[in-house]
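We treat protein structure as text, and this decision shapes the records that our systems exchange. The remainder of this section carries one protein's record, kept here as part of the documentation:
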Amino acid sequence: MNVLLTGAAGFIGSTLAHRLLARGDTVMGIDNLNDYYDVGLKEARVARLTAKPKFHFERLDVASREKMGSLFASQKFDAVAHLAAQAGVRYSIENPHVYVDANLVGFINILEGCRRSEIGHLVYASSSSVYGANTKLPFSENDSVDHPLSLYAATKRANELMAHSYAHLYGLRCTGLRFFTVYGPWGRPDMALFKFTKGILAGEPIPVFNRGGMTRDFTYIEDIVEGVVRVMDRPATPDRNWDPKSPTPASSRGPFRIYNIGNNRPVKLMRYIEVLEQCLGKKAVLDLLPMQAGDVTATTADVSMLSTATGYAPTTPVEVGVKRFVAWYREYYRV
């Protein structure tokens, strides 16, 4: 399979690329290598991939309508894995326009490219953030998601709605994946595990929001990638049982699906920190802070729909995943 992978220099994107290459796929990776976080880390991820013969990389911004049009016109892709996006709930409060460019303009360019090139399957990244003000746990794909608490979440929900319109209008097979707190080796420096590890090793206080009263469905990167690949191999189809008189958000009359992709084993933030302390052999100095704007206190993924459709079954507990991250972090940063 010839795959276009956007966000190839990112955490999930680069790990997915390795998985696709390992099974024999050809991967065209694109990324704009922006400076939202350490560009050197992104370049290091790409360097590991460019050493492989079936991987090709181009520095390209999905928000560029002309360049994305040229890319789709010049090559024939069997599938598109669209992971490029401006990430971060808190950053969207500070820099909203960046999210419009990357997550909305970029996504319409992807949809148009897929439509015009008759792509077999578009799999794209959504987020657990779309559940917003919901408090019923676990979160289900059939829950209402009309109350986002950040612009980032709103753009991800918009992506789902945009994809549905293209599935309905043009028969473009679209599957959206709501990722739940992904962590592991080669992760993002703006995420909690990275910040906590750096702070603990430096003997500096680590920021703990809501004074530690938070729970997350931490999901290990290899479990995530396994789920993504399983979804890519099963293009979305129309749901023959979909009832317009009682519509469900996760499917449609068109070839459209939305799945949660998480661990389904929520962990308290303080337990997560405790595991990290054990792996590092050093206690954390906690800076207990109030809840941040746009954040939520708890997330848990109901993954039954994804499991039924693909056999997805995450297996990595945080005790194992955090240990693997720490081993990578020490080696990469030589600490």
About this structure: The CA atoms of residues 136 and 143 lie 9 Å apart. The chain has a mean pLDDT of 96. The two ends are 40 Å apart (CA to CA). The longest helix spans residues 96-117.
